[in-house]
Amino acid sequence: MQAITLEVILHAVIGVREAQRLARLRALLPRVAGANLFAFWAEGALPGLADNAIGSRLPWVAARREADLLLYEEIAAHRADPGGRGDVLAMLMAAGGEDVAPLSDNELRDQVMTLLIAGHETITATLAWCFERLVHHPRCLERLRQEIADDAGDAYLDAVVNETLRTRPVIDNAVRVLQSPVEIGGFLLPEGTTVAASILGVQLSDAYEDPEEFRPERFLDRPPPPYTLIPFGGGVRRCVGASFAIMEIKTILRTVLERVALRPASRRAERPVRWRRFTVTPSRGARIIVSAKRDAGQPRPAAPQSPITTAPRG
Questions:
Q1: Which end of the chain has fewer CB atoms surrounding its CB within 10 Å, N or C?
Q2: How far apart are CA 11 and CA 19, in angstroms?
Q3: Distances, alpha carbon 294 to alpha carbons 14, 56, 258, 262, in Å
Q4: What distance in Å separates the CA atoms of residue 41 and residue 188, rounded to the nearest whole number?
């Protein structure tokens, strides 16, 4: 899943066409996006770390510097040949108008890097959870597979994605900084206070019947009550990439289920754990056994394929 989501970023977001630059970014960007909590803490506590002789040798810093050079090359290539491009970078470059200045190269780099960090690991983890939940709920897997095969629309696919995001959100809280004093639960919080709304606490609350159960059908009966499904946060700061993420997740789920058969590598469902930075992933990497789909009457393959891992394990 990491490899697939990275390809989406390289082609649909950045729009890399030159083969050597594509290959190098393919190797570098996972190292940039995979920086751990220590890396975030170190650069936050020591703002000049990346610019000194020692800090520049840190693996994630060195990878980011080389990736930056390649991204600036790609921005220059976009400016030199803007025609026929439909990627996100091209749309960012075209943004602006009479009252809005176009984005600078530095601003474009920052936007692309934000999309990489926010949209790589999170979508990888969500896809892993989708597959993990489906193979451990075979009735749901078979219904989704059949509705995809029958081209019955996206209603159940949407329900599966929503139920996965509800029961296994990969971000477990939405952090905000108060712009004015607020009273919550009898406590007066001053302006500037950092608060975190528990996404998991809201989504596993009694707003849902049997909230711990994985039951996609609940989203076919009625829409969720307001602000009880907030995997992308809420309000004016809701994740701007939410629609793109849902489209990507649905496309990948549909494509995989059209082409291969899936079963769990273990009967035991996986626990949510925090392996990297801020994402919550399956404890064993969402190990799934993948085999070729068989037509009716076709003999079963002699031996199953090896398990593959759909999510990172640190």
A1: C
A2: 12
A3: 37, 52, 12, 12
A4: 29
Encoded tokens for 265: 């590598």
Contact criterion met (CB below 8 Å) for 43 and 54: no
Q: Please tell me what DSSP assigns to residue 34.
A: T
Task: Determine the Cα–Cα distance for residues 130 and 117; give it in Å rounded to an integer.
Answer: 21
Domains and CATH numbers, the chain: 2-95+104-119 (no CATH), 121-309 (1.10.630.10)
C-alpha–C-alpha distance, residues 156 and 147, integer Å: 8
Q: How far apart are CA 50 and CA 43, in angstroms?
A: 7
For residue 135, give the nearest of 262, 307, 310, 293 by alpha carbon.
Answer: 262
Angle between helices 59-80 and 105-119 (to 10 degrees): 120
Taking the CB of residue 233, how many other CB atoms lie within 10 A of it? 17
Under the phi-then-psi rule, with left for phi > 0, alpha for psi from -120 to 50, and beta for the rest, what region is 91? alpha
Length of the chain: 314
Q: What is the DSSP letter of 137?
A: S
Across the range 291-304, mean pLDDT stands at: 58
Q: How far apart are CA 160 and CA 174, in angstroms?
A: 22
The predicted model scores a pTM of 0.85
Residues pairing with 183 in the sheet: 188
Q: Do residues 302 and 294 lie in contact, with contact meaning Cβ atoms separated by under 8 Å?
A: no
